[in-house]
């Protein structure tokens, strides 16, 4: 049965939360120890709202924040064990936005989210080099880290908030189901497209297992050639990247040939390439090519939205571009306050997983 939990132990949950879910508490919720009890027919949930930290506006590691404690029924073998899951409360839901209000990037250090986003991109653009990306590709494509099903991998994303995203502060699992459901509404007959929406960010699992977020999340860009102006924070964050002093990497084409095709290009390392490689490695994956392409390049905003790097594209890349742009409408604009009823949706998406990506997957 699907549960909103990353860990069945309080200790492990707090460790994961401290590492991946630092969050600011609104001023009106500062009262230490304030609790709300929600009664339901099956369980009572205590939502503990922690005192705001005096430094950096982060949750205290000792606080169980935005977490529900669910007690299982007495006839369950785990009756005495608490299961912790992140509660997507009103404090962390994005406001309704118009399309032009998405993807706004500033260097405002007084804004908590904008500061977090800028710092993530600064680290990314300092450390993402051609050598680094090749090394991480070699490390992660050994597929010797663990084996788990797609649904189990999704459950892991309940503890991950994307530190590069200026538009949402929700656990990534919420965004996964939001995207999938928006695609399902618009394209009811394309079940592979629904599943692609659900799993497109599953490569972020790397962050749960030790990779820093600057090497997992955010927009991707080609390495080994000149950085385009449409790359986020391009003018403010690349000055300490050693590749910028290599003359071979700082021309329009760099190490590549004209129209060589994106499959020949080394992209900055992140969740797109990793998930593409995971699916390609899975012998029973039967998703169509469009799904592989969407997963591999959906974060390549400087290309599909910024209009740069066309000189590296093959005719096939341009043929697949409309699919990525169609997907992007649901990926970006699905970030809304409505929280999907995930347990109700799980059976449908499990049937798609069984159809297209069955069994244990090597990660």
Automatic annotation (TrEMBL):
GO cellular component assignments: cytoplasm
GO biological process, one term: inositol catabolic process
Protein family per UniProt: Belongs to the myo-inositol oxygenase family.
Residues the entry annotates as binding substrate: 103, 162-164, 204, 218-219, 298-299
Residues that, per the record, bind Fe cation: 175, 200-201, 271, 298, 331
PANTHER family: INOSITOL OXYGENASE, MYOINOSITOL OXYGENASE
UniProt KW keywords: Cytoplasm, Iron, Metal-binding, Oxidoreductase
InterPro entries linked to this entry: Inositol_oxygenase
Pathway: Polyol metabolism; myo-inositol degradation into D-glucuronate; D-glucuronate from myo-inositol: step 1/1
Any one Pfam family match given in the protein's UniProt record, by short name: MIOX
UniProt catalytic activity: myo-inositol + O2 = D-glucuronate + H2O + H(+)
Localisation per UniProt entry: Cytoplasm
Cofactor(s) required, per the database record: Fe cation
One MF annotation (Gene Ontology) recorded for this entry: inositol oxygenase activity
Enzyme class: oxidoreductase
Protein name: Inositol oxygenase
């Amino acid at each position: 049965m699907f549960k909103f939990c990353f860990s069945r132990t309080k200790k492990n949950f707090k460790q994961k939360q401290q590492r991946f879910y630092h969050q600011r508490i609104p001023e009106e919720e500062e009262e230490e120890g304030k609790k709300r009890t929600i009664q339901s027919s099956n369980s009572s949930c205590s939502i503990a709202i922690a005192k705001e930290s005096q430094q950096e506006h982060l949750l205290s590691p000792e606080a169980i924040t935005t977490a529900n404690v669910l007690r299982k029924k007495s006839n369950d073998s785990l009756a005495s064990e608490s299961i912790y899951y992140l509660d997507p409360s009103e404090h962390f839901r994005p406001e309704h936005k118009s399309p032009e209000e998405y993807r706004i990037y500033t260097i405002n250090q007084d804004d908590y989210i904008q500061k977090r986003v800028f710092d993530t991109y600064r680290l990314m653009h300092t450390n993402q080099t051609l050598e680094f990306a090749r090394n991480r590709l070699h490390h992660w494509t050994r597929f010797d880290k663990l084996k788990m099903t797609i649904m189990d991998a999704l459950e892991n994303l309940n503890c991950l908030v994307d530190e590069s995203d200026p538009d949402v502060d929700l656990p990534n699992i919420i965004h996964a189901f939001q995207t999938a459901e928006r695609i399902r509404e618009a394209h009811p007959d394309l079940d592979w497209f629904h599943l692609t929406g659900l799993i497109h960010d599953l490569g972020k699992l790397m962050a749960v297992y030790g990779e820093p977020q600057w090497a997992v999340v955010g927009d991707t860009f080609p390495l080994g050639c000149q950085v385009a102006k449409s790359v986020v924070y391009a003018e403010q964050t690349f000055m300490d990247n050693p590749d910028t002093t290599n003359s071979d990497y700082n021309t329009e084409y760099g190490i590549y040939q004209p129209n060589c095709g994106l499959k020949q290009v080394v992209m900055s390392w992140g969740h797109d390439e990793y998930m593409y490689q995971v699916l390609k490695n899975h012998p029973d994956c039967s998703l169509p090519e469009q799904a592989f392409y969407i997963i591999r390049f959906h974060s390549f905003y400087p290309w599909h939205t910024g209009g740069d790097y066309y000189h590296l594209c093959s005719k096939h890349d341009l043929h697949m571009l409309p699919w990525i742009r169609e997907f992007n409408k649901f990926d970006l604009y699905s970030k809304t306050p409505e929280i999907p009823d995930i347990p109700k949706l799980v059976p449908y998406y499990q049937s798609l997983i069984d159809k297209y990506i069955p069994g244990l997957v090597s990660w």
